[in-house]
Design brief:
Length: 227
């Protein structure tokens, strides 16, 4: 029943925003939430993955799980986490400063507090990284648009500073090919990990290496397509 209700809500969103112009900020209502988004159509697919397919749901017995959300975008994933894990300590990383503004507004207008937002790219060092934004959810170090230097944080250091991490969610538009190898040997206390893998025609394919790192770190893995 829950999935059928979620499916009907998704269908309603798809109908409502099917003709919405791309990359035009607007306010959307979904699942009892009010969000300001930079692109309504990309939000619909976020909603499908997060609230209908529940890609980020994980099992934990911890009363206050620790969640690292790398690539938090406008906050849809954090709203899901806060709803399903109300006592979680959440650290959210978002490299696109304009998108981070949507994130802060969305959490505030939905009454979500006590989330640490790091307005930096997760990367292999703290020296900054060249980064291009396409205005919605596809900002990337590989973006074909003009790039600017944005602040970065070495994810490996943040991971090792924690006693445990109950979920490491990583949707960083191709940077996982660099960040995960840098985290080799630093994932042993991570209990669950979600990685969205991105492949680009002019870049090497690194899925085999990433799966090897996960296997070395003691993870079992399950592959799924978001398409």
């Amino acid at each position: 029943l829950l999935r059928s209700v979620a499916g009907r809500r998704l269908l309603a969103l798809m109908v409502r925003y099917a003709d919405a112009p791309r990359y035009q900020p607007r306010r959307v209502e979904a699942n009892g939430l009010t969000l300001d988004v930079p692109d309504a159509r990309s939000f619909v697919w976020q909603y499908k993955e997060i609230f209908v397919d529940e890609f980020y749901r994980f099992h934990t017995t911890e009363p206050a799980p620790v969640i690292f959300d790398c690539g938090a975008n406008v906050g849809t994933s954090v709203l899901f986490f806060r709803k399903n894990y109300p006592n979680a300590r959440i650290v959210a990383f978002e490299a696109d400063d304009a998108i981070a503004g949507f994130f802060e507004k969305n959490l505030a207008q939905n009454g979500v507090t006590d989330v640490e937002l790091v307005r930096k790219a997760v990367w292999t060092d703290d020296g900054g990284v060249d980064f291009g934004s396409e205005g919605a959810d596809g900002a990337s170090i590989f973006a074909p648009t003009a790039k600017t230097r944005v602040p970065s944080v070495r994810l490996r250091d943040r991971l090792l500073a924690e006693e445990r991490i109950d979920l490491l969610k990583m949707d960083i538009e191709g940077a996982e090919a660099f960040v995960l190898p840098d985290c080799r040997g630093a994932l042993g206390h991570v209990r669950n990990i979600f990685v969205e893998y991105h492949a680009y025609p002019d870049q090497p394919q690194n899925l085999g290496e990433i799966l090897g790192i996960l296997r070395e770190s003691g993870f079992r893995y399950y592959l799924n397509s978001a398409v």
